[in-house]
Specification:
Number of domains of chain B: 1
Number of domains of chain A: 1
Strand content of chain A: 25-35%
Order of helices and strands of chain A: EEEHEEHEEHHHEHEHEHEEHH
Shape of chain A: globular
Structural class of chain B: alpha/beta
Helix content of chain A: 40-55%
Oligomer: heterodimer
CATH architecture of chain A: 3-Layer(aba) Sandwich
Largest sheet of chain A: 6 strands, mixed
Shape of chain B: globular
CATH class of chain A: Alpha Beta
Distance between the termini of chain B: 45 Å
Number of helices of chain B: 8
Radius of gyration of chain B: 21 Å
CATH topology of chain A: Rossmann fold
Bound molecules: adenosine-5'-triphosphate, magnesium ion
Largest interface: A-B, 31 and 22 residues
Number of helices of chain A: 10
């Protein structure tokens, strides 16, 4: 589904991603962990098509196609979804209007007709129930005045509405209370099919008790320096990142 | 400050206008004569005139306009203010065709007095002379003089009691090289509430100058809103001269929603002549192509204990020019005034121009005034967020612009009208 080879990327001439490789297949869940500032959010931004970052070397294939050739909205229409670490507040734009527009634009891209008002409402009802999102929040402007946890829940709700092939969840767990963590994780798990894949970026093993990954990767200094089974997350939780840094130093 | 006198030019400009105007009563003739005379000494402003720096009048000055009084079809071509089901809103309707009165519905206003301004008789309780061009514009604008000298239609409306639904004044514009100069005077009795909506339909216009003058006299305790929806096609030049006079404890709210069209100039004056008044000015605009939208406002606080709020917001894209010039006077005796003024713009292209000039002239010492003006870009982070959910840059832009001007539109009291304006701005 996603194949990243020797990716280098920089912002304002500062290289942040320094030769990163990652393969994600349909049906898989990958966890990416790594110290602050390692480049995790940068990687997600690049995947989503943020033009602030320049890809200087390497390739990103999504379903066999060169992702860098696509604009942000085309990537979304092709089935890529990023749940932001810091979802932006957009005063004046109503959640519902925004989502209906998003769905219709994606449908237009696929040559489909606009969603019927009734079907849209039914979908909203179903998916908001899935992540137990308070329907009152939907009447408000996008993320405006939402609590940290509400913003994160809204991200997963949007993900459920758009039903992507590949979802990247950038620290969706941070800011969620214990119940919300379980609810949101449940939502993610219910949305899981053999045809889609998820990348979860997290600092805490706790999330991975709920969303059980097939692979855990350590992103450090712009590269994936270690990959392993889900047990790797436990090891990181226990020992931190120093031992990996030491391992790297001895190579 | 006054432009070079070139009477021949102005004479030439008004010659065809004069000839095509229909006869009027002696009383009106007397009223307008000073303006006819004065007009000959005036000229169209140029960009050298301070208050006309950013909007070009040369195309108007060079045109040879005349009035066009065509038979009016019985059915109105389309509905103009639509509700959620796309049905025309429930309103009292008055239709002016190229500035001329039509018979359409205009005597259906219950318990109100309305008369064709050109047919006012002595029995009408209001003396036209008491209201017609009662006060000079602050910058003595030539378009206002032109209207006073050669208005070709309009009404005198006396609001005797609260209107149960809006009064919708429809300006139908058509033809080529046509000038339309409606003159509408609204007076109110005490404690009257009313909403007046002006819309323009201009499906078949080619170089039409719509130069309307609207005088509103808001009596004690009355509350009058005027909502101008300026949504023309290209080829229409619109000048809106609105002057509101407030008596004590009254409220007036003037709204200007400007989109499409070539050229829009709003000269808006509120003269606060009584204590305890509230004056609101709202404007939202999206200027595209080579459009010029120019809002000039004056709030003149002459009495104490009043409040004025002014909120203008909009965008300019392509090669459009947007101008805001808002002046607030607080006269010496006008203590305890709260005057707020804010103009926020978004520049959507490098070739567009935004001019914003809030001005305060304060002669009293116990006042609270604030003014602010900002010009910025759309929030890149928000744009990226919307696009990451599949919205094209165009749709994302539209949503964000809609959100930006939405803050102004929010102030429309009637939900159906608000909804209609929101839709025009692509907000819903
Ligand atoms: N505009 C920028 N200019 C310079 N450096 C930047 C810019 N944006 C990001 N960086 C740097 O890139 C590095 C990677 O940041 P990124 O947000 O990807 O880290 P992260 O792995 O997501 O960290 P965290 O765990 O704290 O979320 C950081 O050192 C950051 O300061
Ligand atoms: Mg991050």
């Amino acid at each position: 589904m996603l194949s990243i080879k020797n990716l280098h990327a920089s912002i304002e001439d500062k290289e942040i991603i320094k030769g990163l490789n990652l393969e994600v297949k349909a049906g898989e869940i990958h966890a990416i962990m790594g110290p602050n500032g390692a480049g995790k959010s940068t990687l997600s931004s690049i995947l989503a098509g943020n033009e602030d970052y320049e890809v200087t070397k390497g390739e990103i294939l999504f379903e066999g196609n060169d992702l860098t050739e696509l604009d942000t909205e085309e990537r979304a229409a092709e089935g890529l979804f990023l749940a932001f670490q810091y979802p932006v507040e957009i005063p004046g734009v109503s959640n519902m209007n925004f989502l209906r527009t998003a769905i219709n634009e994606i449908r237009k891209y696929k040559g489909q007709e606009d969603i019927k008002a009734k079907d849209f409402l039914a979908l909203v009802k179903e998916k908001s129930a899935l992540v137990e999102l308070n329907p009152d929040l939907l009447k408000r402007y996008v993320n405006e005045g939402f609590s940290g946890g509400e913003k994160k829940r809204n991200e997963i709700f949007q993900m459920a509405m758009l039903d992507p092939k590949l979802a990247i969840l950038d620290e969706t767990d941070s800011g969620l209370d214990i119940d919300a963590l379980r609810i949101v994780s449940n939502g993610v798990n219910k949305l899981r099919t053999p045809n889609n894949a998820t990348i979860v970026i997290t600092h805490y093993q706790r999330l991975l008790d709920y969303i059980v990954p097939d692979f855990v990767h350590v992103l450090y200094d712009g590269k994936i320096v270690k990959s392993g089974p889900k047990e790797l997350a436990l090891e990181l939780e226990e020992k931190g990142y120093d031992w990996i840094k030491e391992e790297l130093a001895t190579v | 400050m006054s432009a070079v006198i070139s009477a021949s030019k102005m004479e030439e400009f008004i010659s065809s206008i004069k000839n095509s105007n229909s006869p009027i009563t002696d009383e009106l003739e007397n009223l307008r004569t000073p303006f006819v005379n004065r007009l000959l000494d005036e000229n169209f402003p140029t960009t050298r005139d301070e208050y006309w720096k950013y909007i070009r009048t040369n195309k108007i000055a060079k045109s040879s306009y005349s009035f066009l009084n065509e038979e009016v079809s019985n059915t109105i071509s389309s509905a103009f203010v639509l509700d959620e089901e796309n049905k025309e809103i429930d309103a009292y309707k008055v239709v002016l065709k190229n500035g001329f009165n039509t018979a359409h519905d205009y005597n259906n206003l219950p318990n109100q007095s309305i008369a064709n301004i050109k047919e006012i008789t002595a029995c009408f309780s209001t003396e036209l002379a008491d209201y017609f061009a009662k006060e000079e514009d602050n910058d003595r604008n030539v378009f206002n003089t032109l209207n006073s000298a050669y208005f070709n239609g309009g009404f005198l409306i006396e609001l005797n009691e609260t209107l149960d639904k809006p009064l919708h004044i429809i300006h139908e514009i058509s033809g080529g090289d046509v000038i339309a100069q409606p003159r509408i005077i609204v007076t109110s009795k005490k404690s009257v509430e009313a909403t007046i909506i002006h819309t323009t339909v201009s499906d078949k216009a080619n170089n039409v100058l719509l130069n309307g003058t609207y005088e509103i006299f808001v009596a004690e305790n009355s509350n009058i809103s005027v909502i101008n929806i300026q949504n023309e096609r290209e080829g229409v030049f619109q000048v809106n001269n609105t002057q509101a006079h407030q008596e004590k404890n009254s409220t007036v709210s003037l709204h200007f929603y400007s989109l499409n069209g070539d050229w829009i100039r709003n000269n808006t004056n509120i003269l606060v002549n009584g204590e305890g008044c509230e004056s609101n000015l709202y404007g939202a605009y999206t200027a595209i192509n080579k459009q010029q939208i120019d809002n000039h406002t004056v709030v003149d606080h002459r009495k104490a204990n009043c409040e004025s709020n002014e909120l203008y917001k909009g965008t300019a894209t392509d090669k459009a020019t947007v101008t805001f010039n808002g002046k607030v006077f607080v006269r010496q005796d006008a203590q305890k005034i709260n005057a707020f003024q804010s103009n926020n713009n978004i520049l959507l292209s490098d070739d567009a121009t935004i001019n914003s000039k809030p001005e305060l002239e304060i002669y009293a010492d116990d006042v609270k005034c604030s003014h602010g003006s900002t010009t910025g870009q759309l929030d890149e982070e928000a744009l990226f967020y919307l696009r990451s959910r599949g919205l094209s840059p165009e749709s994302a832009n539209k949503l964000l612009v809609g959100a930006f001007v939405g803050e102004v539109i929010e102030n429309v009291k009637q939900d159906v009208v608000k909804h209609h304006i929101a839709q025009l701005f692509g907000l819903e």
